[in-house]
Amino acid sequence: MSFSFKTLILGRRLGNAQHNSLFGYLVDGLNAIGSLLIFIIMAMIVIDVLSRNLFNQPIAGVAELVAASIVMIVFLQLPGTLRHNRMAQADIFIVGFTDKHPRMGNLLMCMFFMAGSYMLYIVYTGTLPTFIRAWERQQFMGVEGVFTFPVWPIRFIVISCAAITVVQYLLLAIQSLWLAWHGQVCLTEEAEQ
Hints:
Layout lengths: L4 H6 L1 E4 L2 E3 L1 H34 L6 H22 L7 H10 L1 H36 L2 E4 L3 E4 L1 H31 L6 H4 L1
Antiparallel strand pairs: 1-2, 3-4
């Protein structure tokens, strides 16, 4: 498969009808970082509980770090969830409709993806001023004198992952538009080559 616009969207075929591109590796890498963060907060919680029960000495800042990590995990894993079609949705209508009317079904999916990209764009534009404010004012979370950490990395992850999710939504919208143009239900082996 030579480089083309379709390759940019779908990436290169890896085998078993799987594709990946540099953007796909970025999205999957963010997903892996989110999974690693889940493991880290689980370990922090277990260590904090053991420290409380065995030594009567809680670890400072665990609750604040866990609360901040949940937001980061959601946004780190959002583009991957979308890319691998694991976003919660009611497929009962669209799957049957797309099977019977591929052009209209894919146009509806394109509209869904465009609406999703707009919603994440709103998240991006809404979070950007708070990120700039947190950066300029050096805002922090926690209890001063006990445990504090800066807020800007959390907001940076939110805005960067929201922007990546916007791009992922737009790529899926272009793919749906391409499928609608060709009247296909999904990408076949002939369409991939």
